[in-house]
Amino acid sequence: MRGVEASQNKFQEDGFLVLEGFLSAEECVALQQRIGQIVAEMDVPPHCRAEFPPRILNKAEEQQKTQDNTEYFLSSGDKIRFFFEKGVFDEKGNFLVPPEKSINKIDHALHAHDPVFKGATHSSKVQAVARSLGFHMPVVVQSMYIFKQPRIGGKVPAHQDATFLYTEPLGRLLGLWIALEDTTVENGCLWFIPGSHTSGVSRRMVRTPAGSMTGISIRGSDPAWDNSLYVPTEVGRGSLILIHGEVVHKSEQNLSDRSRHVYTFHLMEASGTVWSPENWLQPTAELPFPPLYT
Ligand SMILES: O=C(O)CCC(=O)C(=O)O
Ligand SMILES: [Fe+2]
């Protein structure tokens, strides 16, 4: 096995690092079973069911729908919320596919509200990884369970996580992405541009002032990343991929028959770091960012 120091060097060089066998198969299954229970108990919010409206909406209704969707997203930072794939409801709002096959992701605070995911996030193994990377005061800023459903699991366009979760200085954000199933090119594994984490961030997603129509806006744009530079990163079930906050990564649509479940969460080194007040995600009175080392 690679030594800790060699791994750290590789992470600093590439902006990502694969740690195989981080979770056992049993630990992966436990998270999958728990998410199954959460889905079985899910209440689908009425506006989410309106994927295919039964009639053409007028402009004001369209605007209201966009506003409802944005509001559902913007207020999800401290909650467990459900986001669906396109085309999973019929015109009456009934599921066209089984509910557990309809969800794109569940986020952004599983780590805070669900005991099983809280345990997985704050485990001694995760704490040891953070310590080995030199984190003094890591806090958990968000978590997501991503399903990448067979056939319909949508792609995640190329991005840097700091576009959405910006800090000053940069370099204080780390994603921990855990494959709960084998991930391959066919079922939508991650693709990275090695070494792309050193050129800064030129696109930001920011929260617009309260009362404005959409609630979020994009400032700046990404450079044209060369498609030939992406490296597919296939990993086995239980692998952990460390993702530097500025490394460029993406995943493609899942066209295979196999799902690609992952649990992913983000840490920030809180010591000496300013969490941008413009980020869409903000700590709240109900949920300040929890320290990892507890
Ligand atoms: O799982 C994916 O497809 C994308 C996840 C991602 O971008 C992240 O965890 O930062
Ligand atoms: Fe990402």
Description:
23% of the residues lie in helices and 24% in strands. The strands form four sheets. A seven-stranded antiparallel β-sheet has the order 1-12-7-14-4-3-2. It has 294 residues and is α+β, with helices and mostly antiparallel strands. It is globular. The structure holds 2-oxoglutaric acid (AKG) and fe (ii) ion. Fe (ii) ion is lined by residues 159, 161, 175, 249.
Mean pLDDT value = 92
Sheet with most strands: 7 strands, antiparallel
Count of individual beta strands: 15
What share of the residues lie within helices? 10-25%
In DSSP terms, counting alpha (H) and pi (I) runs of 4 or more, how many helices? 7
> Structural class, judged by helices and strands?
alpha+beta
- Distinct ligand kinds: 2-oxoglutaric acid, fe (ii) ion
Radius of gyration: 19 Å
Strands of the biggest beta sheet: in what spatial order? 1-12-7-14-4-3-2
Shape: globular
Write down the secondary-structure element order: HEHHHEEHHHEEEEEEEEEEEE
Task: Determine the N-to-C terminus distance.
Answer: 29 Å
